[in-house]
Specification:
two-stranded antiparallel sheet, alpha/beta, 4 helices, elongated, about 160 residues
């Protein structure tokens, strides 16, 4: 690069703003490269390890409480993939997590199903009783209830 007043063929050094910007870019790239192993890969490996140790339900419901984890783990084990689980309550928050954890099982709003119906959305409605609800009949229809975000969590009621 030549400056306007320089003799032809002579190169000049870039000005100080260009040098400062180049130094700042190089320092930024070095800083990012130094953080990459811990901040990106290390945290992701930790998350994968936690997910595999805890299981999907417990990992995603860490902040919801033990009852929510217990309900979702039981449903994930007992609910067959071809059946429907009824839900009620607030659809925001942990109920969205429940739908993802229970996939490919289908969650259907309980108000959209007649009280004595046995089929919803072309699939049979799940019937069963959680082991900690001994007072409920064995063939009861469980309903997964999502609590409001303020009282975050899931609970199991029966129809």
């Amino acid at each position: 690069m030549t400056s306007p007043g320089a003799a032809p063929g002579l190169a000049t050094r870039p000005g100080w703003p260009v040098r400062v910007a180049a130094f700042a870019c190089a320092a930024h790239l070095l800083f990012c490269a130094a953080r990459l192993p811990h901040a990106v890969y290390g945290k992701r490996i930790g998350e994968i390890t936690d997910w595999s140790e805890l299981g999907a339900a417990a990992y995603h419901l860490q902040m919801a409480g033990a009852e929510s984890r217990r309900v979702l783990e039981w449903l994930a084990q007992e609910l067959p993939p071809g059946q429907v689980l009824l839900w009620n309550g607030d659809s925001r928050g942990y109920l969205q997590v429940a739908a993802a954890v229970l996939a490919p099982r289908l969650l259907v709003w309980d108000r959209a199903v007649a009280p004595m119906a046995s089929i919803a959305a072309g699939r049979p409605i799940f019937r069963g009783r959680a082991p900690w609800h001994q007072q409920v009949p064995v063939d009861a229809v469980p309903v997964l209830v999502g609590r409001t975000p303020a009282a975050a969590g899931l609970e199991l009621t029966y129809r």
